[in-house]
Amino acid sequence: MNESTQQMTVNQIEVIKAQSAAAFALTPIGQQIKQFETQQRMAKMYSESTIVPDTYKGNLGNCVIALDMAMRMNANPLMIMQNLYIVHGNPGWSSKFLIATINASGQYARLRYEWKGTEGADDWSCRCYTYEADDKLKKEPLYGQWVSIGMAKAEKWYEKNGSKWKTMPGQMLMYRAAAFWQRTNCPEIGMGLMTAEELHDTVEDQGYGVQTVEEEIKENANKQTIKMDTTTSEQVKVASEITQNEAKPMPRQATAQEAPVGQSSEIPEWMK
């Protein structure tokens, strides 16, 4: 095989490889791989940014997930990162973002709130409602579930440490009413995630073990009295004394060449 023929064969192989790669890129798997590679490059850029939340700084995996969710929701990636919170290890949307997404979806009119009961009392309640976008005459309202202060107390939301139910109950009633309405009427908008406020109220903090152990040691330290049997204590004392005596060096015996202290080192005549 001459050199020109060999070069032609190499070129043909390269062409076949390029054609195969192009054909694979058009397949669903090829499209997913290409999209994933693009997301990785974008995620690297976001992970090195100084304006993204700390959850995403230097974390390529979190950035890829946020980019994927932004693509599915047709939203800006930075907006997703700024409104997706991690509460007790679970991701959740901020309530204001969820409400804004519903209002901007074009599927419904803007969310409205209905109130009943006495403000500040346990029967103070709120529910969310709106109409579908094509219901121009507003004949069929879409109602959500009533949420009350009594419900918050019964579900132990009111007593959570750091909860806003005591300081801003009206705002929390509207947030919770909007979340309930969204899950029953358009769960696809929230992609199955709860709100950050709901996670704070309903999910227990399991922790990571380190703090729990340290707190347990601090709490129980020096609280338990250790009782020793008198017999056992005496045995330990005797054994300790024996060990100490055994550890003492034996007195050094004088050799024939060394005279005891205070005696002459000369050998008597009768021993010569």
Report on the structure:
There is one protein chain. Strand 1 (84-87) and strand 2 (90-93) form a beta hairpin. Among the domains are: 21-87, no CATH class; 88-205. The chain is built from eleven helices and six strands. The longest helix has 23 residues, at 3-25. It is of the alpha+beta class and 272 residues long. Helices cover 50% and strands 8% of the residues. The strands form two sheets. Strands 3, 4, 5 and 6 form a four-stranded antiparallel beta sheet that branches. The chain has a two-stranded antiparallel ribbon with strand order 1-2.
Short key terms for the protein model shown above:
4-stranded antiparallel sheet, two-stranded antiparallel sheet, 272 residues, alpha+beta
Q: Counting H and I runs of at least 4 residues, what is the number of helices?
A: 11
**Could you tell me the strand content as a percent range?**
5-15%
Arithmetic mean pLDDT:
78
Q: Mind describing the biggest β-sheet? A: 4 strands, antiparallel
Radius of gyration: 40 Å
- Into which percent range does the helicity of residues fall? 40-55%
H-E string: HHHHEEHEEEEHHHHHH
What is the end-to-end distance?
112 Å
What is the general shape?
elongated
Based on secondary structure, the structural category is alpha+beta
What is the number of beta strands?
Answer: 6
